[in-house]
Amino acid sequence: MPSLADATVQALSLLILGDRDLWEIIGISFRVSVTAIAIAIPPALLTAFFLAHLEFPGRRVLISLFNTLLSLPAVVIGLVVYLLLSRQGPLGDWRLLFTQTAMVVAQVLLAFPILVAMSHAAFQAADQRAWETARTLGIASARAFVMVVGEVRFGLLAAALAGFGRIIAEVGASMMVGGNILHYTRNIPTAIALETSMGNFAQGIALGIVLLVIAFALNLSLQYFQGRGRLSL
Hints:
Elements: H1 4-17, H2 20-53, H3 59-69, H4 74-85, H5 100-125, H6 129-136, H7 141-151, H8 153-168, H9 172-178, H10 188-197, H11 201-232
């Protein structure tokens, strides 16, 4: 077994020299996760807005539910999606199990509670009079909504970054519904788990470095947007 130093040097060589399989795995991760976050953002944004600005029976229960779902393990989401898409499941005829589409579905479900909870907090922190004033002045609902979103844009960007960070690093759901198929559904976290179990530490470390860089970049961006959001209030 190579030493940690040797494995790290090999890992950096793979990244710098552009190992084809390695960068294909990275590309699959980004394609699936970017698609998932893009799908999840619009309905999550609308849900958070309604929870922040409308009063209706069960509103507080829904808020508590979304906050509770923040801690839901990824493997539970994977199990639910697996049962839905399996051959014996209600959606088995769609033949989506072990595809990138199944991975997108699982990641959308993972990101949605985070997006709703953080976006709701952003809307709540904003001046509630902005929406009320816009509606009083007769501004159309869609335009008033865009105005409010503009007021809390930095908080919403922070929510999107947090949701993306959550799904690109998860392994449980992607492994269960994607099947970890080489050249098709193998993403960064599932590849790390597989390569490490096989003793291929160089590739595992290389992919771990990529995840670490992504996490660092997302955290820097999150700190920046949270700071801008506080300055704009």
